[in-house]
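Case study.
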Amino acid sequence: MSPNNRTGDKHDRILDAALKVFARHGFFNSKVSEIARVAGVADGTIYLYFKNKDDILIKAFEETMTMLITRLDEALGALTHPLEKLRTYIRLHFSIVRAHRDLAEVITVELRQSTKFMKEYKNEKFQEYLQRISMIIREGKDQGMIRPEIQPGIIKRGLFGMIDELTLLFVLSKKYSVDQLDQVADQVAEILIRGIQTEKGRATLEEMRKTSGAANGNV
Amino acid sequence: MSPNNRTGDKHDRILDAALKVFARHGFFNSKVSEIARVAGVADGTIYLYFKNKDDILIKAFEETMTMLITRLDEALGALTHPLEKLRTYIRLHFSIVRAHRDLAEVITVELRQSTKFMKEYKNEKFQEYLQRISMIIREGKDQGMIRPEIQPGIIKRGLFGMIDELTLLFVLSKKYSVDQLDQVADQVAEILIRGIQTEKGRATLEEMRKTSGAANGNV
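After joint prediction, the assembly is written out as follows.
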């Protein structure tokens, strides 16, 4: 379950292979033997690292969430304006979707069809990721940048629903290009920011952009 | 399949009963015999109206969508301002969720777990319902009320994702009250309107509210 450094490489190869296989055949039709073949390991090797196919899916999901949270906190740490943090959150989410399309497909399409996963698995990493949204909203309200009546819980779930649905559209529609995904991220961020900002929030954000000119290059 | 007026009552009773049973036991664990018992009809009667359990679910869904579109078009027909139409759309959606909680639960929780439904069923009524959003956005852009860069397709899917996720939260969380659902609808509408409106859109909407004072009572 906890591979040491020497074998960490195989562990990661198995996860990468699993995502490819899940995305190609769907989770339920995927076979562990096929994952082993794609990873270039013996079937039995997989069971040194994972209990079963569900365990592989959950581990792949958790490792991606951990990576996402780490990158998010790094990116947010460099920013001061809550509205700019929100924009960065949205951009980062879509950039990870773009870079890990197989995983995005498995999460948005396959996972939500798994009753076991949806109902029995206590998804703490995911909650932690969403929690970052409500933290930013509270910070913005405290600083007078976000309207006082805005409810962090509604934004947290509503924003996630919005980006998840648009991710699903990207993943399912093969004609939808990577450039379009960037446009989607920018449009979602712009709408949300205008939708929740105070006049002070708007003015300070504009001021920041004028002086730095770098506000568009955070992610 | 097409009950006449004399038997339409049984048809509707079966649909109502099915939603109760699906919501209570989950779609997959529900039995046709249980639906018959709750509807107060003989098991065989159900097959006079429906092919099987999947058919009941699809018919229930389609009838609700038809009712929703009819009510939506009635409500929108009384309005002229595209941003006010958008607010009414969002409010109406949540008010239907509130009035048909069993159906909302079945749709948001059960349907998305059905691969057959998600992938094989061509969901035309649902597409028609979503299409109303992009129509409103286009109208608003034409009238200079909505910013020209706003993409109707992004709003259509993004807004649906947002209200669907918030509906899921309402349906799954028993402590979430009906009053809170109204607040959610108002907050979502307010954020979206501010997020996409032009200065002209904002000013005309404010003007309308001042003169009518009735803008809050459309649904």
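Observations recorded in class. The two ends of chain B are 33 Å apart (CA to CA). Confidence is low (pLDDT under 50) at residues 1-6, 215-219 of chain B. We will return to this complex in the next lecture.
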